[in-house]
Amino acid sequence: MMGTSTYKDSAKGEIYHIYNRGNHKKNIFLDNDDFSFYLLRLKTYSKENNFSIIAYCLMPNHIHLLLKQNSTQCPQKLMASLHTSYSKFFNKKYSQVGHLFQGRYKQKTLGSNEYASYLIGYIHLNPIKANLCSEPQAYTWSSYKEYLETTTNNSMCDHQLIQELGLFFDLSSSSVVISVLNKISPKEAFDDPQD
Question: Across residues 158-167, what is the average pLDDT?
Fold first, then answer.
C-alpha cells in the first residue's frame, strides 16, 4: 500500500505524503497570517520545483502535504526551501531563535490510487479529530473546500491531476468518514504518528 522513503529516494511521477510537526509538539502557526504565509510559500516553491499539490492540511502544530513529483527535482529541495523560509518568517515575527520543526520532515511514497484516496480523506479529517471543527469544509487551512468547488481559480491543488488520478473524495456522509478512519490508522499512515 504505502512505503517509507528515505530522503534520497525519489523519482519523477511519484506521489508522496509529507508531514512534519513543531519542535516539542509546539504550535507552528499562531495566527491566520502564519497559515497564509506558509500556503503562499508552498504554492511558490511547488511551482519552482515542479511539484503538483494534491492535498494539504495545516494544523496548529503540524502539516500534511500530498505532492506529486513532476521532474527529477527531489522533495528534499522543495521542503528545505519551504521550511527554511517559513522558519525565518516565524522566528523573526515572534522574536524566537532555534528550530521551529521537530527534525527533518517525514516522507512516504504512495503505492496505489485507492490508498491515495483514503489518505486524502484522512488528511482532511485531521481538524475534526482535533476538535477544531465539526465538518471538514468548515476548516480554512485544508484543501477540502477545493474538492467541493467546480471553479479552479487561484487553486492550490492541481485539479486536472486529481481528476486524471480519480482522487476526488467526498466526506459528506458519516459512513464514508468511518470507512476512511477504519481504512487508515495513524500507525499505518505514519512512521511517527503525530496527529
Answer: 84
